[in-house]
Amino acid sequence: MKISIIVAKSLNNVIGKDNQLIWRLSADLQLFKSHTSGYHIIMGRKTFESIGKPLPNRTSIVISRNPDYGVPEGHFVARSLEEAVQICIGKKLDQVYIIGGAEIYHQAIDIADELMVTEVNAVLEGDVFFPEIDKNVWTVVSSNAYKKDEKNQFDFDFVVYKRNSK
Q1: CB-based burial label for 96 (10 Å; 0-12, 13-18, 19+)
Q2: What is the residue range of 78's domain?
Q3: pLDDT tens digits for range 96-117
Q4: Which CATH number characterizes residue 48's domain?
């Protein structure tokens, strides 16, 4: 099973502030939707709550330590990242996406096969960060540039990294 992390981060690795995104990037939201639609997405409880409901055409697996945490029917709660991955393996999935937040990204970067990174061309203030991408571990396999316009607050690059073989 391929494990992909999908994230939008600033040049200084900020991914959010006050449990919210800190930019408007319509093209990035379209990229996120096109890649994750039809798949299982793993996220932490705070990320799930910031979204407010399960995303259409995706199965959510929400990581929460609260044994009574509930999600709508057809979605799952896991107590750890490992349990979330095991749910996906048990369902014989070919692909799963990890969509945040910061704590989940920090745990998942060591097991991911691919990073799909919207690199927002700005230095921004925030309170949650993506881990540093180690160029000894990850290699860029594609990069596409997007320009700032009326629907996209900043220039950004959509960069796909693959893990180097061990």
Answers
A1: buried
A2: 2-163
A3: 999 999 999 999 999 999 999 9
A4: 3.40.430.10
